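Quick entry between incubations.
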Amino acid sequence: MAEIRVENLHKSFAAFTAVRDSTFTVPDGDFFCLLGPSGCGKTTTLRMIAGLELPTSGRILLGGEDVTFKRASQRDIAFVFQLFALYPHMNVRTNIAYPLRSQAMLRDDVSRRVDEAARILRITHLLDRSVSGLSSGDRQRVALGRAIVREPLAFLLDEPLGALDAEFRDVMCGELRALHDRLKATTVYVTHDQLEAMAMADTIALMNQGMIEQRGTPQDIYDRPALACAPSTSSCRTTRRCARKSSMPSTWAPRRSSPSTRRRARA
Ligand SMILES: Nc1ncnc2c1ncn2[C@@H]1O[C@H](COP(=O)(O)OP(=O)(O)O)[C@@H](O)[C@H]1O
Ligand SMILES: [Mg+2]
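Done. Structure below.
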């Protein structure tokens, strides 16, 4: 696994700036949440880290190596998006194996990795099923399986639970964190859901209008919020479960942060 370092990252679409001078480090093995309201630049940041979007300026380092101009396929990063696409004509096993087959890995090695991923995700019983009849939760597990078989340097997850219903999101939220604790993979998890971030993250970066406004542990963010996501009840101090949703606010009302707060947010 590897550290991810983003330096002065900037992305403009014509006259519109989606990401401004973003600098942060995701330590090796960290579960790092990029948290912010819709449209603040989270997906654009993730797409640049993945190599799916070129920055207007700035640098991206993966394990100390400058990968800014490397293609996605050369970065050894796996990503899962909210609207994950599975191959409908393939069964679960073939879907999970796909990235390894395309690397021409030996059949026995592919089989071993797929079995291990399925065991971790508890979908062994589904391996020979068609993906078309699966529930959204199981489909999401298959998408995660396809990411973890690669044993990449890092995982990028963009609102991967967004398509699931509330109850199942809570379950998957716990499972994703448990999965991270087993794999110890450097993970950048994008969400607009404060509770998801508080429940899962080692580190949260609060993003607003293209800028990282604050960076800290869930406890830091809880105690000294620069944005008014301000979890306001003591019940969310234990932050390893999403089950506490009802006691925390879920709307965004960004409060202006001071320049010193913004400076502190930069790693
Ligand atoms: N390809 C694009 N062309 C023009 N504007 C874009 C493009 N991609 C994203 N944007 C804009 O950049 C802003 C940030 O988008 P995005 O990173 O998707 O936000 P988030 O993921 O936080 O909701 C939005 O205003 C969006 O409309
Ligand atoms: Mg997005």
